[in-house]
Description:
alpha/beta; Rossmann fold; 2 domains; 13 helices
Amino acid sequence: MPEMGLVDVHHSAVKLEATNRGYERGLIELAERGADIIVMDADLAGSSGTSEFRKRFPDRFMDIGLCEQDMLGTAAGIALAGKCVYVTTHGMLAAGKAWDIIRSTICYGALNVNICGADAGLSAGGAGGSRQSLEDVAVMRTLPGMTVVVPADSLEAKKATIAASRIPGPVYLRFAAARVPIITTDITPFTVGKAEVYRRGDDVSILACGVVVYEAMKASRMLEDNGIGARVINCHTIKPLDRAIISRASVETGALVTVEEGASIGGLGGACAEALAQTGRATPLKIVAIDDRFGESGEHEELLNTFGLTARGISAAVREVISRKKDEQPQS
Length: 332
């Protein structure tokens, strides 16, 4: 059994589950504990992960319909009355259609509204580029006072959902509809704002978030077989970013690769680049993400392969950044 904090990728494919499911279990546990929460949905309970909550706690559930702006505005009013509110819709609709309400009402008022972007990233699959939210993390990260969390699997999604109830002010939780491997356990450490090392390595650090943490773990195993020690860090919290662990990884491994199922501009990669720049340290960095384009229709695994978000693509990025590290080392 791996020591606390480290994750064994050999056990990662035992069960597949959408992170949306962990969200629902987190909501149910909060309600069972007696937490004063209200859950709202935009006519998406079946796909977003709130249908079971609606059945069990109908007095705490509100279906606003396909009116995202109204839902966020109503959530703000309920939060002002002292409730902790969870609102659920597709990530693209939350970050796009309702952004003005989130900015000017919820964030400006520092209200306890947890915005849950379901079916985010490429997990919308067949819905295509118009419904795949690749920009949501970048958009939400810019908002003052907004916490942004991207869980790696359904167990971490449950932990993040519960943790959000204790965070003052707004939180954006990003979930996926695609069934992905559960790589963590109930005892795997999770603290909002604190990244965790899942695999050790001294040659390069892979900083990943969301469902591609699993691919980063596979890449690390592949690279290990070729004599490359790739540290894997689960950066589930994009904001507030764990700058200390990034700085330490920069010093100890001398090369960084970020991996995310979203836009290459402004997401985890952008946040890490900003943090690294402020240290004044010239550490080679490679961002593995989706470059300045929309998504497309397809199965989730198919799309991950198309956009290079697999263990093979990550391994290639690692080799590139290690070669840059060697090129930039001073000659003796």
